[in-house]
């Protein structure tokens, strides 16, 4: 069994079926995510843009909690948490004075921050890099298929963390899907912005951005959208409800993989989607 | 005058505003006057000027000086100047020592007092050292009036022709099957729009037919040894599988070859070639090559041999092996050129994803009369584009890739714009950061294309996508950019996108730099000896640079630099001898233990071993005074003139 420190982030609990599907995959693939005790908000984009020392301290506290429990890796399930933690890690590694300042702040709370900061990983990285063999074996050929799936990565997962073609046009999840018998469609909207936290207060500006993503996926033959981040999922799911006559269901990648492994839709929280997903049994061949 | 009784003159240079404002030069000169053996001290505005040198000469004559110290700049700058002054006053040029109080002191020290102290220390060291100097004489060495030119593009060809016309023997080595380089791929050249082939092909013919030039194509330089005037180079000729002496270049083999679907490198993958091929119709030599990776006989071990069956000259030889050729040359001109930046990592521009996104080199072929469309600017489906976007600075001026400006892209982009307008009437949109047109008639060309109705948008393109905003634009590409002059973002539907990719050093440049012992800058371009005053020389004697291997440049600059490199070579070898360093190594036979460590250390093969006496000996004609033997010698029997232990230790002791 592989054990990771787990930072769920604020949106995870209320995300439509994310927790259920991650739990289901963990059980099936023998992954243990140990939730950090007494975790705090990562600060998201707001903290850093207003006050860098506060932003660093919020992330630094999470690193210290992981170190306290002896973990060298933190897993997140949200693009914003992922990019915020990576940003904090990079800045503290680059500038030891910043790390020392955060350590000093945390010392007041009785927490210790060591120099070797933990690795930050997305749950997608775990599936792609660490357990892909297990996953391939577990992919039962009688699992449910949802049809042509289009991956929507969002803007923060690859950039600025990866260089090369995968930064602008990532394909790691498509490659994994293909290996386990899920039909992935190729399209050009994988890293377009969905509006992120502006989608609610500036709905008029964000509506066209969301519709552009959905339209592109539909044009390229995608029947289902799958996401790797609660914010993306919510924006694309809720953003289609009142405007589209034939909206595309918006899932989590863990739900799509769960179906391929033969896990029942209700155990994957699929009933929580605003736009319902209809699944069909794969024909035995 | 008895040189063992030193009488030293010390001269402290102000170097205009370079030294004097930081270093108290009068104080340094005064301090020098207190040192042993110092008879004359002066400070002066510019020691390197004529009055400065004459001051030294007059003091030597009038005061009987027999040693000179100048505290000024780096010896790389003016040591030869002052040595010459000493010599013309009648003392051995090696009775001179320089203290570098500019690069080592005034330019790099904040505090004025500290700078003055440091300058005094360096002067003290120089005085202590010069006391121990010994007179040395340089030697004349015979040279080979033969030049090796590495690279057969326009730079290499120009240099070869110029030096060959002066009566030198030239070996021109090119790794591709034909000479011609990148220029052979172009159709028109900016800003005059003359046809590249019309000015290029005659030069290729001259190179081919020149009695003084031997061409080795499909060949690479694999080794070089020796020193200025006397290099030995090894050239590896890859097997062509076609016997050059027999082949008539009729082309029947290419017509008969059944492997026809191999993407043509010369056409940037836009067209196909056969397994036996000549890259383009005007190739020099005409002899084709067989690509061993795609030939049915060589790669697949099949019984084909169509080329051999139809060859009337019986020139096909599937058993041909690579061949090593050794040549003696006096000088080397490096003209290895560039390669175009591969835009694949910039996936947001869609190269390799959308078929209508071209690199500039691919577009050159598309537009070329001998290219895959015979010069018609059409899309992959044969339609003529209605709107074309050209994106500047792809891979250049980009901290993620190359920070430098590639210098030629603005101009060739505008050439493309003109040709597209002329041939198709299509709308052309140039997306630029800054338009750089600083050449003769370049700005005029910029004005001309603006008048021809080409649109210029100042803004780096964010994305090229196939996501259309309107139903009518489905199937076209959309360029997403911010016009930074109007501060508006735009989404422009287009039919074709050309990426103006930058230039980067050719593959293999690093290996060649190691082979020739020449240096590269951080971007991988070969470094010239001096940016302004020695722009085609390298730090290695007898090795010169021409063309883009030294940095991105256009055709006029390349040809000018190639001519300059040839001129330098002609000047270097014209007298038939070169003056070598006076400072060479000696091995004291009484101290030598015969361990032979120095034999392998010497890269000039200047040390031999006398079995009878059991000692190593230096061949003075070959020694370059590098000091490697002196450093490795465990018994301190090897020493280099002008860097004896006594000289170096006394200098250090005085400084410390």
Q: Could you explain how this protein is built, in words?
A:
- The complex is a heterodimer of chains A (about 280) and B (about 650).
- Chain A is α/β, with parallel strands linked by helices and about 280 residues long.
- Chain A is built from twelve helices and nine strands.
- A four-stranded parallel sheet of chain A has the order 2-1-3-4. Chain A has a three-stranded parallel sheet with strand order 6-7-8. In chain A, strands 5-9 form a two-stranded antiparallel sheet.
- In chain A, helix 2 (about 45-50) crosses helix 3.
- In chain B, strand 3 (about 65-70), helix 3 and strand 4 form a beta-alpha-beta unit.
- Chain B is globular and about 90 Å long.
- The interface between A and B is medium-sized, with 14 and 12 residues.
First and last CA, distance of chain B: 31 Å
Radius of gyration of chain A: 19 Å
Report the sheet with the most strands of chain B, covering strand number, pairing sense and barrel closure.
5 strands, parallel
Q: Identify the overall geometry of chain B.
A: globular
Highest CATH level, the class of the largest domain in chain B: Alpha Beta
Mean pLDDT of chain A: 91
CATH topology of the largest domain in chain B: FAD/NAD(P)-binding domain
* Main beta sheet strand tally, sense and closure of chain A: 4 strands, parallel
Count helical runs of chain A.
12
Overall body shape of chain A? globular
How many domain modules of chain B? 5
């Amino acid at each position: 069994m592989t054990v990771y420190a787990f930072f769920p982030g604020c949106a995870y609990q209320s995300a439509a079926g994310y927790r259920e599907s991650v739990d289901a995959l963990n059980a099936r693939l023998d992954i243990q995510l140990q939730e950090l005790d007494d975790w705090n908000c990562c600060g998201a984009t707001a903290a850093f843009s207003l006050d860098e020392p506060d932003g660093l301290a919020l992330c630094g506290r999470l690193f210290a909690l992981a170190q306290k429990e002896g973990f060298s890796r933190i897993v997140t399930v949200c693009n914003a948490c992922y990019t915020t933690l990576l940003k904090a890690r990079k800045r503290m590694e680059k500038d030891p004075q910043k790390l020392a300042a955060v350590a000093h702040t945390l010392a007041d709370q009785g927490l210790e921050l060591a120099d070797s900061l933990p690795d930050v990983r997305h749950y997608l990285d775990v599936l792609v890099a660490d357990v892909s063999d297990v996953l391939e074996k577990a992919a039962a050929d009688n699992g449910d298929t949802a049809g042509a799936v289009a991956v929507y990565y969002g803007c923060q997962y690859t950039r600025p963390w990866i260089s090369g073609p995968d930064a602008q046009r990532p394909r790691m999840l498509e490659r994994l899907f293909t290996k386990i018998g899920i039909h992935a469609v190729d399209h050009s909207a994988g890293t377009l912005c969905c509006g992120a936290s502006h989608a609610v207060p500036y709905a008029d500006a964000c509506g066209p951005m969301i519709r552009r993503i959905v339209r592109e996926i539909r044009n390229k033959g995608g029947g289902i959208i799958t996401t790797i981040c609660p914010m993306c999922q919510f924006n694309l799911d809720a953003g289609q409800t009142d405007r589209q006559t034939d909206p595309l269901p918006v899932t989590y990648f863990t739900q799509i993989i769960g179906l391929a492994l033969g896990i029942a839709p209700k155990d994957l929280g699929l009933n929580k989607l605003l736009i319902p997903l209809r699944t069909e049994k794969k024909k035995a061949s | 005058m008895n040189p063992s009784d030193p009488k030293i003159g010390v001269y402290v240079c102000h170097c205009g505003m370079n030294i004097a404002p930081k270093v108290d030069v009068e104080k340094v000169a005064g301090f020098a006057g207190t040192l042993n053996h110092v008879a004359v001290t002066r400070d002066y505005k510019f020691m390197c000027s004529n009055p400065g040198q004459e001051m030294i000469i007059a003091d030597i004559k009038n005061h009987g000086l027999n040693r000179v110290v100048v505290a000024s700049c780096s010896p790389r700058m003016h040591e030869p100047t002052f040595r010459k002054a000493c010599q013309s006053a009648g003392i051995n040029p090696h009775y001179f020592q320089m203290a570098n109080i500019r690069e080592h002191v005034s330019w790099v020290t904040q505090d004025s007092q500290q700078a003055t102290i440091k300058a005094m220390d360096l002067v003290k060291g120089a005085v202590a050292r010069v006391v121990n100097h010994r007179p040395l004489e340089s030697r004349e060495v015979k040279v080979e009036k033969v030049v090796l030119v590495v690279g057969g593009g326009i730079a290499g060809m120009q240099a070869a022709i110029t030096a060959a016309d002066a009566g030198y023997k030239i070996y021109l080595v090119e790794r591709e099957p034909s000479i011609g380089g990148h220029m052979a791929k172009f159709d028109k050249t900016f800003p005059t729009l003359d046809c590249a082939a019309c000015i290029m092909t005659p030069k290729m013919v001259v190179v081919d037919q020149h009695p003084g030039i031997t061409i080795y194509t499909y060949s690479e330089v694999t080794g070089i040894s020796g020193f200025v005037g006397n290099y030995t180079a090894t050239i590896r000729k890859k097997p062509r599988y076609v016997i050059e002496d027999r082949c008539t270049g009729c082309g029947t083999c290419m017509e008969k070859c059944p492997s026809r679907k191999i993407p043509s490198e010369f056409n940037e993958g836009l067209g196909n070639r056969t397994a036996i091929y000549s890259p383009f119709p005007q190739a020099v030599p005409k002899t084709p090559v067989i690509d061993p990776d795609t030939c049915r006989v060589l790669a697949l071990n099949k019984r084909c041999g169509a080329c051999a069956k139809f060859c009337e000259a019986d020139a096909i030889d599937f058993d041909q092996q690579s061949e090593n050729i050794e040549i003696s040359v006096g000088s080397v001109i490096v003209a290895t050129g560039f390669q175009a930046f591969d835009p694949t990592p910039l996936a947001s521009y869609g190269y390799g994803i959308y078929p209508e996104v071209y690199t500039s080199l691919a577009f050159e072929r598309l537009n070329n009369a001998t290219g895959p469309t015979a010069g018609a600017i059409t899309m992959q489906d044969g339609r003529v584009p209605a709107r074309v976007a050209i994106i500047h600075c792809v891979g250049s001026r980009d901290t993620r890739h190359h920070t430098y400006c590639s210098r030629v892209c603005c101009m060739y982009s505008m050439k493309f714009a003109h040709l597209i307008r002329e041939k198709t009437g299509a709308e052309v949109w140039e997306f630029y950061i800054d338009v750089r047109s600083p050449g003769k008639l370049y700005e005029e060309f910029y004005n001309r294309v603006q008048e021809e109705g080409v649109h210029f948008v100042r803004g780096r393109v964010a994305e090229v996508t196939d996501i259309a905003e309107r139903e009518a634009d489905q199937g076209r590409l959309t360029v997403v950019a911010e016009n930074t002059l109007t501060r508006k973002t735009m989404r422009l539907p287009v039919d074709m996108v050309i990426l103006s990719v930058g230039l980067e050093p050719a593959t293999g440049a690093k290996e060649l730099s190691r082979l020739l012992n020449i240096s590269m800058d951080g971007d991988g371009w070969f470094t010239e000896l001096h940016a302004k005053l020695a722009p085609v020389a390298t730090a290695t004697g007898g090795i010169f640079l021409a063309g883009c291997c030294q940095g991105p440049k256009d055709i006029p600059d390349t040809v000018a630099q190639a001519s300059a490199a040839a001129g330098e070579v002609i000047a270097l070898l014209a007298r038939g001898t070169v003056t070598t360093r006076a400072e060479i190594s000696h091995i004291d036979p009484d101290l030598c233990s015969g361990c032979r460590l120095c034999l392998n250390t010497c890269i000039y093969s200047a040390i031999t071993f006398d079995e009878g006496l059991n000692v190593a000996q230096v061949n003075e004609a070959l020694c370059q005074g590098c000091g490697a033997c002196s450093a490795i010698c465990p018994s301190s029997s090897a020493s280099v003139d002008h860097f004896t232990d006594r000289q170096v230790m006394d200098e250090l002791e005085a400084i410390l």
